[in-house]
Design goal:
Strand content: under 5%
Oligomer: single chain
Number of domains: 1
CATH architecture: Up-down Bundle
CATH topology: Glycerol uptake facilitator protein
Number of helices: 9
Length: 242
Amino acid sequence: MSRRVTAEFFGTFWLTFGGCGAAVLAAAFPAVGIGLLGVSFAFGLTVLTMAYAVGHISGGHFNPAVTLGLWSAGRCANKHVLPYIVSQVLGAVAAAAVLWLIASGKSDWVPAGFAANGYGDLSPGKYGLVSCVVIEVVMTFFFLYIIIGTTSKGAASGFAGIPIGLALTLIHLVSIPVTNTSVNPASSTGPALFAGGAYVGQLWLFWLAPIAGAMLAGTFCRWLYEPDVLIQTVVVEERAPA
């Protein structure tokens, strides 16, 4: 278990540090100008790289919503759920702390939202609560759908990290203007704690909506993929010698 939670800690640290770091450090620096596209790819690349680095140790969740979604799909043991979530949150908070330390070393740096998520006045595009709830639920649903589908029996072996990383990139491309993109309660918590104030007050949404979307996807995928497993089992039994 210690190896698993350590992998989840560092995986979530890297996701938060790399993704939010791109937004706080690079995107805010005019000479670099990576913009929305660059930040989106930064998040996707963090998941892609860590999926191959430690995915074989812990499963590469790096996200409480993913852990609970996989649990609802029957893909995560009960005993792993709480330790994974705790290590993920700690990893995200540690990453945000290191990012704050680096960013504050620039004399004229202004923290602003510190890559935190928000709705209403705190939404990058000033989208209302309902819009933000819907996009977080939908995006997390499809993120889990892709994770489960690409790691299911019959999917191309060894390549799941690529579509999962690209899915997270696409999610950010679509939803950054709406909520600054969460789909991950841990990576929302770390920056919000340092942004403070209203961002902490809105953090509930970025736990509730991603988890709801993930668990809906997990429940749906349990139904969707079970018939395939049953069919494969029947075929094997029919072909087995008497």
